[in-house]
């Protein structure tokens, strides 16, 4: 450090020599230009603009100069320090901008990515539709009854007045369950929900007002309109003074509850071993209401331009069935029906293909929402 004396010449003070000041400035500017990050720049700032930086130390020397020499040296050092501090500011701005745009890219959130990593499923629409169908009857005072899916042949056929040679009993329709030894077990996968009629009559006090939703099985190939596993809603009423008019009224109330009001229903004569008389029950097409019939310009996809949609079978319970279940036919009579759940889902929600109902794709199920 130079001492203060009258012959002091700043040129003689090494750190204040113009070349030296320029060197310190250039070194600082090079370090600033070379700072690749804000952290680097922080160190560069400390080294070249901090209290102990060469330029700061040189600055301190100025006070020790002769007053005449101070202005000159002060200008030089001050100019160098200003340049350094401006370069620092500029580099800081560039590095901050670089950091900001990098952060924008690195921390960007793709809002189109799936947000629900454990997506919740939904109850199958066949389940919810079957429950809604049953609920309409529960609203009329019916109870819900159940029976097993692996059923005794006697319940599935005999008690329902299917004679042993009835075509429905052949291998064509029925899944027979083998016994452990490979022979006949007397069990089948129930081909309809009608055996629950017998179970309800045997298990309950009269009068009986029940519906039985459930799974049924037949040896059909899966295609757009068939499935080896499907669902029915059985209904049975056995009471005193029961007539077909009550059946008609119950069916009308069901159609109104499921599809809306003002739709006509009709019964077409049919045959089932367990009902006499028997009928197929149709409802007016709720889309075209018959307007598509005979009008090629207005085809209806829902009813295939027939004007009517088939819902299922029904009839007055055959007294033989009541007798098989131990009911006094002199006192009691009843009626029954069997409605297709898949058909109801197809019509109520415009599902075109049975495959959608059985494939278990959650996108199909979720589309119906979480209906309880
Ligand atoms: N069990 C019949 C079937 O699977 C449907 C049926 C018809 C049920 C008439 C009934 C009925 O209760 O009365 O095709």
Characterise this structure:
Helix content is 39%, strand content 19%. The chain is an alpha+beta fold and 372 residues long. It has 12 helices and 10 strands. The strands form 2 sheets. The protein has a 7-stranded mixed beta sheet with strand order 1-5-6-10-9-8-7, sandwiched between helices. A 3-stranded antiparallel beta sheet has the order 2-4-3. The site of 3,4-dihydroxyphenylalanine has 12 residues, from strand 9 and strand 10.
Summarize this, please?
This protein is of the alpha+beta class and about 375 residues long. It has helices at about 20-35, 40-50, 55-60, 65-105, 125-140, 155, 195-205, 245-260, 320-325, 340-350, 355-360, 360-365; strands spanning about 145, 150, 175-180, 185-190, 210-215, 230-240, 265-270, 275-285, 310-315, 335-340. The longest helix has about 40 residues, at about 65-105.
Summary tags:
372 residues, alpha+beta, BirA Bifunctional Protein, domain 2, 2 domains, 7-stranded mixed β-sheet, 3-stranded antiparallel β-sheet, 12 helices, 10 strands, disordered N terminus, binds 3,4-dihydroxyphenylalanine
The bound ligands are: 3,4-dihydroxyphenylalanine
Instruction: Enumerate how many helices there are, as a single number.
Output: 12
Which class of the largest domain in CATH terms? Alpha Beta
Return the string of H and E elements.
HHHHHEEHEEHEEHEEEHEHHH
Please tell me what the overall shape is: rod-shaped
Describe the oligomeric state of these chains in a short phrase: single chain
Unreliable sequence segments: 1-7
Cα radius of gyration in angstroms: 46 Å
CATH fold-level topology of the largest domain? BirA Bifunctional Protein, domain 2
Average pLDDT, rounded to a whole number, is 91
Structural class estimated from helices and strands: alpha+beta
User: For the record, what is the CATH homologous superfamily label of the largest domain?
Assistant: Bira Bifunctional Protein, Domain 2
How helix-rich are the residues, as a percent range?
25-40%
């Amino acid at each position: 450090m130079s001492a203060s004396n009258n012959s002091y010449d700043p040129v003689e003070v090494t750190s204040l020599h113009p070349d030296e000041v320029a060197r310190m400035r250039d070194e600082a500017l090079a370090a600033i230009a070379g700072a690749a990050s804000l952290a680097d720049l922080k160190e560069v700032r400390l080294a070249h603009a901090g209290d102990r930086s060469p330029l700061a130390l040189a600055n301190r020397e100025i006070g020790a100069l002769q007053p005449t020499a101070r202005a000159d040296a002060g200008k030089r050092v001050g100019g160098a320090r200003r340049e350094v501090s401006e370069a620092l500011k500029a580099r800081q701005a560039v590095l901050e901008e670089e950091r900001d745009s990098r952060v924008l890219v690195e921390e960007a959130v793709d809002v189109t990515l799936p947000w629900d990593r454990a997506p919740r499923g939904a109850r199958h629409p066949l389940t919810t539709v079957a429950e809604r169908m049953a609920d309409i009857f529960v609203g009329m005072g019916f109870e819900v009854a159940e029976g097993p899916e692996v059923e005794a042949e006697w319940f599935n056929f005999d008690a329902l007045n299917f004679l042993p040679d009835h075509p429905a009993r052949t291998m064509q329709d029925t899944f027979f369950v083998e016994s452990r030894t490979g022979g006949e077990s007397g069990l089948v996968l129930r081909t309809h929900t009608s055996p629950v009629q017998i179970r309800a009559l045997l298990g309950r006090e009269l009068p009986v007002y029940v519906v039985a939703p459930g799974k049924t099985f037949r040896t059909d190939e899966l295609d757009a309109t068939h499935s080896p596993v499907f669902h029915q809603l059985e209904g049975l009423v056995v009471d005193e003074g029961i007539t077909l008019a009550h059946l008609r009224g119950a069916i009308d109330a069901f159609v109104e509850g499921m599809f809306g009001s003002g739709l006509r229903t009709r019964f077409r004569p049919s045959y089932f071993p367990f009902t006499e008389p028997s009928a197929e029950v149709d409802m007016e097409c709720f889309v075209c209401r018959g307007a598509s019939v005979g009008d090629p310009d207005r085809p209806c996809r829902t009813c295939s331009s027939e004007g009517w949609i088939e819902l299922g079978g029904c009839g007055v319970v055959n007294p033989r069935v009541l007798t098989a279940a131990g009911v006094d036919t002199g006192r009691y009579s009843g009626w029954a029906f069997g409605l297709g759940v898949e058909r109801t889902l197809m019509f109520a929600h415009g599902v075109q293909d049975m495959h959608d109902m059985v494939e278990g794709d959650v996108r199909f199920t979720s589309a119906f929402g979480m209906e309880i």
